[in-house]
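1st attempt posting a full record on here, be nice pls
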Amino acid sequence: MKYHVITLGCQMNLSDSERVISVLDEAGYTWTDDENDAGLIGIIACSVRQKAIDKVYSRIYKWNKWKNNKNLITFISGCILPSDHEKFLKLFDITFQMKDLPELPKIISQYGVTTPTHLKVGIDPYNENIEQFWDVKPAYKSEFEAFIPIQNGCDKFCTFCAVPYTRGREVSRPSKDIITELALLVAQGYKTITLLGQNVNSYGLDKKGEEINFAQLLREIGEYGNQIKKDFWVYFTSPHPRDMNDEVIEVVAKYPVLGKQIHLPMQSGDDDVLSHMNRKHDMKKYRHIVKTIRRLIPQSTLFTDIIVGFTGETEEQFQNSRLAMAEFKFNMSYTAIYSPRPGATSHRWVDDIPPDEKKRRLHVLTDELRKHSLPYNKNMIGKTVRVLVRNTDRKEGYLSSHTEGKLIIRFACDDKSLIGQFANVKITSATDFSMEGELV
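the predicted structure (as tokens):
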């Protein structure tokens, strides 16, 4: 039987889908790029964004109509709220949590024989047996970039976020398994590896005395990099300011294989808004982290996440976010317009910022970001930097790459054999969010 899987959402869902594909391939199913040609179709879904859920409904309504003319089995998993899960029970043939992925081939083979109660699994907030999922060897989508999940779930309960209700409580993966997977990837020639978790720097805190902490995990990876003497960069996403400590930054500064790029979600530059969001950190804490990064890793780029238009955000509070962006001079900010998600605490509150005002605030922060990203990029002109070539560029005759700091550089070249390799590029021009150069 041919199958097709659609992935929605963040890098964690992309990583999940690699393991889903691996399990289906191992069971003898055959991948097809064309969903029209598939007898088995699944979605790795994301309840965190309403647009992603809207896409799920659009697809399943279409697929269920196809069943009038063809045999088709549908399944769904991923990051799903209990309320969405209940609705999907009636729409999909099979629903399951990622921890139950090893059982998926058996469930599919028994479809139509067992009862729906055996096929459709409820959400377990405690992630029992998640280790069985981690034991699945992924079918990596890239030959040079890979994700390694190091934990699942979240204990932070930010009021705007539904993740604790979709992925359950934090569970850390055994460090020996993480190191083993990383070593295998490096041996196979992978050039960038990203450690994934909802709050990576709280790694190990759920297993105190039984497991190392995040800084120690990074140190082990750094020591491995020193011993193996191969070229690769290791990143992590996303850390939470509450658990970010100086030791993590010191370790990143010390080891060459740890990529000099830090993604540090701020969400707001105002203490009252941060409190309303239940972020459990304030700007004093955030400022200390940024100053430590600048002091210990001056070459590091700094990325962030910001939400505009959160419930009750005043103009003064919004301006504090703009001022923070001016102060920290981020290289990149993933700025989102706030929208309530069912299941998150803030969904019960009045969404009192008009849509047009939210859009205005988004544009203001985007303009503020440009004020600092463009001078940084222009300052790179004339320098020769090491890049990882990732793909062909939209500009014909060019390849696209990124620096160790994940800044985008394109350069004129038609040698596609460079894709997946490191190269040296001399920067010749710059725009707000990218640069152009020539191969050295």
